[in-house]
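User: Okay, second chain of the day. Same drill as before: sequence in, structure tokens out.
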Amino acid sequence: MIDIHAHILPGMDDGARDLEDSVEMARMAAKSGTTAITATPHCNIPEVYDNYFGDEYWELFERTAEELKKRNIPVQLLPGMEVFSTPDLPELLADRQIITLNGSRYLLMEFDFQEDPGFAGWILGKVAELGVVPVIAHAERYEFVQENLGLVYQWYRKGYGVQINKGSFAGRFGRAAQRAAYELLDHNLVSAVASDAHGTYARTPWMRDVWQELLEEYPADYLRVLFDENPERICRNLDLVRFRQIPFPGLQNHYQV
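Assistant: Same drill. Structure tokens below.
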């Protein structure tokens, strides 16, 4: 498995507190079958986290990656960010203050949980105009998505990636997020499942449990695409494997975004 969303860099945000935390997260991920992790600290959250790309990020990333090698932990660390979507995001990309997932054309983007869907569609489109492919982080958790799953149907048709948190399937983020996660999976609108890990106790990088749980209801070949093949394709800058989208009867599948 390849995990494209994890807050494993030490001291950058609300994830790993220090280097030892990062090591333990990587060790746990390896034991659960993960072979590579994209380090995605929160970035561009106004008045909370800046974490723009530069020497500080790169030095911390390399120090963490070297420590994992030193401890013989069989997990490859890859660079990235979870970027909060603001109107100036296109300018930040142009100024190279934002790094994509492993330097690919795929950008992990998040929104305010009560974001206006019109703004979400607008900024996704602006990023796409730059030749960057948005990957919507934990799409199932946004209230505006839960109220209209047809938004994700439209985004998927535009070629965007859709990432779901493993914890949502277990109800960690509430029933609405859990329902949305399963609905999106049932309608072939998920590109990747990731941990969104923040530590080793609550929101962990252990992926095996959700794999085994979903395997009871979904074909293994389908899940391999979401847990392994598409995450690898993202990190290698290749086209995503895409499934035939199943519309939502009665929902606004063609909401103009």
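Strands lie at 2-6, 36-39, 42-43, 76-79, 82-84, 106-110, 133-136, 161-165, 192-194.

User: Thanks, on to the next one.
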